[in-house]
Design brief:
The chain has one domain. It is 78% helix and 0% strand. The chain has four helices and no strands. The longest helix has 82 residues. It starts with 5 loop residues before the first helix and ends with a helix. Keywords: Membrane, Transmembrane, Transmembrane helix.
Length: 202
Amino acid sequence: MSDDTAPLADRQHARPLLRLALEVLLIAAGVFLGLAGDQWRENASHRALARETLRRFRAEIAANRAAVAAVRDYHVTTLRDLRKYLSTSHATRNVADVHLRGLRGVPFEHTAWDLAMSAQALSYVPPDVAVELSRVYNKQQAYAQLSQGVTQSMYLLPRWDNFDGLASAAEVYFSDLVVMEPELLAAYDRIVPHIDAALRGR
């Protein structure tokens, strides 16, 4: 082959290589854009799930806070009456001095927590918020377990058959509640601003 024809052959050979490189580049760019699109959609879905989860938590915490606040004064007042009653001698005790109108434990809502656990949505919530939420729900669970235990004992200590026994059990229960309830209210007040900040950031 002459020197004149060599550059033409080289150019003709280079064209398929250039075309192949261009096709590979376009395919790679398409795959990259497809993966980036999928990642964007997945991130958007996670953000939406986190936002909805945080809204549910906020509503549930507001409801539980209102429920605790509604019974707190009753527990404080009734505890005072029970202590006064139990501190007097048996001969001078008067059942009418104790205005015991039930135990009035709080039936905490926990649907938002249950949904977050089942959907694994807590992993999309900011870690500091997730930790605080866990603490709040653990406190609520401890309160609920205490209430369940004393409710069961109440059925074993009917009011009129053994009021002193019931009063003693209620006094122990209310003593725990008047400590737990302010702690719960403070925990609610701490977590709500964190939830609001996380919602504003999404």
